TrEMBL record:
<feature type="binding site">
    <location>
        <begin position="29"/>
        <end position="31"/>
    </location>
    <ligand>
        <name>L-glutamine</name>
    </ligand>
</feature>
<dbReference type="InterPro" id="IPR029062">
    <property type="entry name" value="Class_I_gatase-like"/>
</dbReference>
<feature type="binding site">
    <location>
        <position position="90"/>
    </location>
    <ligand>
        <name>L-glutamine</name>
    </ligand>
</feature>
<dbReference type="GO" id="GO:0008614">
    <property type="term" value="P:pyridoxine metabolic process"/>
</dbReference>
<keyword id="KW-0456">Lyase</keyword>
<dbReference type="Pfam" id="PF01174">
    <property type="entry name" value="SNO"/>
</dbReference>
<dbReference type="GO" id="GO:0036381">
    <property type="term" value="F:pyridoxal 5'-phosphate synthase (glutamine hydrolysing) activity"/>
</dbReference>
<dbReference type="GO" id="GO:0004359">
    <property type="term" value="F:glutaminase activity"/>
</dbReference>
<comment type="similarity">
    <text>Belongs to the glutaminase PdxT/SNO family.</text>
</comment>
<dbReference type="InterPro" id="IPR002161">
    <property type="entry name" value="PdxT/SNO"/>
</dbReference>
<protein>
    <submittedName>
        <fullName>5'-phosphate synthase pdxT subunit</fullName>
        <ecNumber>4.3.3.6</ecNumber>
    </submittedName>
</protein>
<feature type="binding site">
    <location>
        <begin position="116"/>
        <end position="117"/>
    </location>
    <ligand>
        <name>L-glutamine</name>
    </ligand>
</feature>
<comment type="subunit">
    <text>In the presence of PdxS, forms a dodecamer of heterodimers. Only shows activity in the heterodimer.</text>
</comment>
<dbReference type="InterPro" id="IPR021196">
    <property type="entry name" value="PdxT/SNO_CS"/>
</dbReference>
<comment type="function">
    <text>Catalyzes the hydrolysis of glutamine to glutamate and ammonia as part of the biosynthesis of pyridoxal 5'-phosphate. The resulting ammonia molecule is channeled to the active site of PdxS.</text>
</comment>
<keyword id="KW-0663">Pyridoxal phosphate</keyword>
<dbReference type="GO" id="GO:0042823">
    <property type="term" value="P:pyridoxal phosphate biosynthetic process"/>
</dbReference>
Length: 174
């Protein structure tokens, strides 16, 4: 998706690899596993530092959880990278069997979104821009704060590059 959006992509698994990129995509998956792996591979603090220094990052689904300053329904002691002044509720839309697809407005464009055990944003700070909401409940599912972008849905599963292109444009602007 990043290549189709005009960027080159490389895997980042170690601090030295993190230093070589202009922006970072934190994908979906399992946020507790991501946190534990980030600690195991000594990535948590380097990630926090690069985010604090202004490195653009985009988190989808579990990546949204990882970019949240605070989480609800996390496992005991679960940590995040942080950076976006928001509270995110893990698995807010339900379990795997509750996964769904929906059309929604993202940054002024209509996109098709795939939600899999997705979080939603419970609350945001004053510097956070809401880019998308979804039913049921008009829940916040896409946000931006400065160089950080997060969605609770998986745009990579639709073949539509607009969300990734939005992020690539963010990186280029900085």
């Amino acid at each position: 998706m990043l290549q189709e959006a005009g960027a080159s992509a490389t895997a980042v698994r170690r601090p030295a690899e993190l230093d070589a990129v202009d922006g970072l995509v934190i994908p979906g998956g399992e946020s507790t596993t991501m946190w534990k792996l980030a600690e195991t591979f000594d990535m948590l603090e380097p990630l926090r530092l690069r985010i604090k220094e202004g490195m653009p990052a985009y988190g989808s689904c579990a990546g949204m959880i990882m970019l949240a300053d605070r989480i609800e329904d996390g496992v005991a002691g679960q940590q995040t990278i942080g950076g976006i002044d928001m509270v995110v509720r893990r698995n807010a839309f339900g379990r795997q069997v509750d996964s769904f697809e929906s059309d929604l407005d993202f940054a002024g464009e209509r996109v098709h979104a795939v939600f899999i055990r997705a979080p939603w944003v419970e609350s945001i700070g004053g510097d956070v821009e809401v880019l998308g909401r979804c039913e049921p409940g008009d829940r916040i599912v896409a946000v931006r704060q400065g160089p950080l972008l997060a969605t609770s849905f998986h745009p990579e599963l639709t073949g539509d590059t607009r969300v990734h292109r939005y992020f690539v444009d963010m990186v280029r602007e900085l």
